[in-house]
Specification:
The structure is a homodimer. The first copy, chain A, is an alpha/beta fold and about 230 residues long. Chain A has one domain: Rossmann fold. Chain A contains eight helices and five strands, in the order βαβαβααβααβαα. Chain A has a five-stranded parallel beta sheet with strand order 3-2-1-4-5, sandwiched between helices. In chain A, strand 1, helix 1 and strand 2 form a beta-alpha-beta unit. In chain A, helix 1 packs across helix 7 and helix 7 packs across helix 8. The first copy, chain A, is globular, with a radius of gyration of 17 Å.
């Protein structure tokens, strides 16, 4: 029986990743985090997507990262800015976020006897986050193999990052072919309580362009006309 | 200003590690986890030690690892066994525990602008856990450098494991010279509600021998005579 743990934020990438994981595994376990993100409506989207794809279990883990600050995504005094297109690391970077998410996924995966962890990171259309790069995923794979009993027993849990080299348009085309309902996903860093997207943050900009380039109708509901 | 995050379980090793971190830093932040461990009295010890060493902040983070099973330390249906001396990975191994703890410490350290993380792992007198070995710590250092903004900016957070190559006796001798009060530490995997140690689990056995070999009086309170 093939089992996978899938990191599910509720956005476009992780939902596509879940669709892929479902195709390649018998059983999928979704893992989300309530980490103090201002855009917590993404967790409602995550619940809907987990149901949509009939995952076997959906865990939402609370972490106190919001109290620590250090990111525009969690710190009330640091606003989320509009998209700038700069190549530097965006202020929405959250310290060690993917490392924390992957580490917890690794523990759950080993306890579940799952063979893989799916993470929807991309290093193409992204915000310059260091923990979305191929060399980062490679380093985590090495760590996961050394860190665990299954790894030492020559049966390591595999870190699957199938979107790593895909553009947003390619991800959307792939997801559309797999039946992802993007209307229930939320990518916006400033999503309001009704789940409406701002249309101008990094995440909205990359998503909007992706739909346009993929030639797929954008089902996103925006809080203002764009 | 030199700042460090110190992983503090409440046991002998992490308390010695905190004593060392205090010596080498201006400010220390202690980090403990309530992860469903059966021997939760160690957290009371962790609080006492954090106070004893006047740490600037002590965070205790709750994680649902206890629901996952996969370890004698967390699973009610799997007993903690007496020390056997076997070289294989003990049943008290907790899936990905140090990776989860270090990952969360990394996030907190970066938000705090701390320069280092102290972890009290040893690969000498230990239970065969894969995430206590030098190659594991080395792999985590590489990951931490790639994962973070500070790492990318050539100012990585350093993973300090000063006890990695020390025997238990050497750790105790070091801690005694640094003024660690071992009577308030709890290492036992079967510590009872009053904090009394069983005296026969892996952790007790290694600790008892360590005091004997170091020629330091063992201040541990046992639930039965040994």
């Amino acid at each position: 029986m093939k089992k996978a743990v899938v990191l599910l934020s509720g956005g476009l990438d992780s939902s596509t990743c879940l669709a892929l994981a479902k195709q390649k595994n018998d059983v999928c376990f979704a893992l989300s985090f309530s980490y103090g993100q201002k855009h917590s409506p993404e967790l409602i989207a995550a619940k809907k997507i987990a149901q949509y794809f009939h995952v076997d279990q959906h865990e939402i883990i609370s972490l106190p990262m919001g109290h620590w600050g250090g990111s525009a995504l969690t710190d009330p005094s640091t606003p989320v800015l509009d998209y700038t297109g700069k190549s530097e690391i965006a202020t929405t970077y959250v310290p060690a976020r993917n490392t924390i998410f992957l580490a917890i996924a690794l523990g759950w995966a080993e306890a579940l006897k799952a063979q893989s962890i799916f993470i929807g990171v991309s290093s193409v259309d992204y915000s310059g986050y260091p923990d979305c790069r191929p060399q980062y995923i490679e380093a985590f794979q090495k760590l996961a193999t050394l860190a665990t009993k299954t790894g030492v027993e020559a049966n390591p849990i595999m870190i699957e990052a199938p979107l790593l080299h895909l553009s947003k348009a390619e991800t959307i085309a792939l997801g559309a072919s797999l039946g992802v309902d993007y209307s229930i996903t939320i990518s916006c860093y400033r999503a309001n309580a009704n789940g409406l997207a701002c249309g101008t943050c990094d995440s909205c900009e990359l998503r909007k362009r992706g739909f346009k380039e993929a030639g797929v109708k954008d089902p996103t509901l925006y809080s203002a006309a764009h």
